[in-house]
Design a protein that fits this description.
- This protein is an alpha+beta fold.
- The chain has one domain (about 5-60): Factor Xa Inhibitor (Irregular).
- Helices cover about 35% and strands about 15% of the residues.
- It has 3 helices and 3 strands; from the N terminus they run αββαβα.
- The protein has helices at about 5-10, 35-40, 50-60, and strands at about 10-15, 20, 45.
- Strand 1 and strand 2 form a beta hairpin.
- The chain starts with a helix and ends with a helix.
- About 5% of the residues are buried.
């Protein structure tokens, strides 16, 4: 089995099996966003179980 490298760069699998992703909308136009939004964007997010199942297929050794 091969790992999908595009998925490997974007997602991590935790020890308990959850899939972690980065928050979107953090690349530009940050001056118009509130401080609270910017702090929230810094945290990693967990994927929904439906999407996590699809990503785990792409990361067989994760």
């Amino acid at each position: 089995m091969k790992t999908r490298k595009a998925a490997a760069k974007r997602f991590k699998i935790t020890g308990s099996g959850k899939v972690i992703r980065r928050q979107a909308k953090t690349r530009h136009l940050m001056e118009c966003k509130s401080g609270r939004q910017k702090r929230e964007f810094g945290r990693d997010q967990t994927l929904s179980p439906t999407d996590a199942r699809r990503i785990k297929v792409m990361l067989p050794y994760g």
